[in-house]
Amino acid sequence: MKKILSAVSLSALFVFIIAAVAWAAPYDDIVKKWTREVTYKDKFQAELTIKVAYYASEYIDAVIQKEAEKNLWTKDEVENYQYRLLKSLSLEEYIPFYIEFDNRGPAMHMAPFDEQITLWIGKKKYKPVDYEKRFNFSLTGKRGGFVYFPRYDDKGKPTLEGAKTIRLVINGAISAQTIGKTVEFYWDIDKDSGGSYLASKAAERLEADRLIKRLEKLNEQKKELQKQLDELDKEIQKIEERLKELQN
Question: Any idea what DSSP says for residue 242?
């Protein structure tokens, strides 16, 4: 019996290892698909490597699936992880990018960083809503962090709606290696085949969070408009009362 159990255990372990190796390949392919990396050198052999990851739906699906496979999570555990991940990425409000600088040259000075980076969606240009504040400090060696762009415009319309490509542009003046050069990264977002997390309960919770915030904002605007309307009504009433006095 022990030999049989041992054989079964070894077989199960073998299958698990094969499955893990098989999953690693597509995961690495997906990461590569949505990650951009470029290295700049100057004549003094100083180097700057910039790596940017766009959190496409396919990329997020892969991260969730990899963690679920690794931890052997239940359905509820996967849903909870999805919600925490999506919440940490602020996906209900923003478009996140993870940027890493590896500077092996003179110190870089990028403050204020939100003026050094731009996202182009079609012909529309967007500035960061939030970003890793450490990018404002003098930089040598490695430093990474998230940069967030608006997912919705002022009217609540998705900024990515109808877009096929996006372009992230960084000011070349951030370093001696890139000065005078165009630093930009492209993604074909119409090739994003992911998005299964969008049908999850976690995504519904996120959407509810966003709609609640939107509703709060609209109610505040409504109160302000109602206040202005009440003031106009009072002024109109005074004018009408005065006109009656003059006509009598």
Answer: H
